[in-house]
Amino acid sequence: MSLTTTQRAHLEQRLREERARALDLLNRDLDDHAGTTRQEEAGDLTLSPFHQADLGTDTMEGELAASNETRIASELAEIDAALERLYASPDQFGVDEDTGEAIPFERLDAIPWARTRGR
């Protein structure tokens, strides 16, 4: 069963909302780190931390931030791809790419960029 026009319009709106949310998160995270040094971010008074554990914490926080930025950018790419699929072939939107079966609307409402029915 394919999606109704109302369901597709709802999913388009959900995709746009999720895109705005992801962009906001990504921009906020990038703005938080723009123009600051690790020293400033950590609140250190010197270039070298007072304790080795501080260096480990600083490194971990930097890697976590980079990982989050990568995850959000990947999610944003999936959302953009879903919008392209929706515009290019609206009748095929919501069809599992592996099986050709309809993806349940509830799944699409939760994850509007879903490409498969899930497990």
Structure in words:
There is one protein chain. 65% of the residues lie in helices and 0% in strands. The protein is mainly α. The protein has a single domain, classed as Four Helix Bundle (Hemerythrin (Met), subunit A) (Up-down Bundle). Helix 1 runs antiparallel to helix 3 (52-88). It is elongated and about 65 Å long. The protein starts with a helix and ends in a 9-residue tail after the last helix.
Concise summary:
This protein has about 120 residues and is mostly helical.
Q: Architecture in CATH? A: Up-down Bundle
Q: What is the domain total for the residues?
A: 1
Percent of residues in helical segments?
A: 55-70%
Approximate strand percentage: under 5%
Please tally the β strands and state the result. 0
What is the H-and-E element order?
Answer: HHHH
User: What Rg, in angstroms, do the CA atoms define?
Assistant: 20 Å
- The structural class is mainly alpha
Parts with pLDDT < 50 across at least 5 consecutive residues:
none
pLDDT averaged residue by residue: 85
Report how far the terminal alpha carbons are from each other: 19 Å
What's the helix count?
4
- Major β-sheet annotation: none
Q: How is the CATH topology named?
A: Four Helix Bundle (Hemerythrin (Met), subunit A)
Please write out the topology.
Elements: H1 5-33, H2 38-42, H3 52-88, H4 105-110
Helix pairs in contact: 1-3
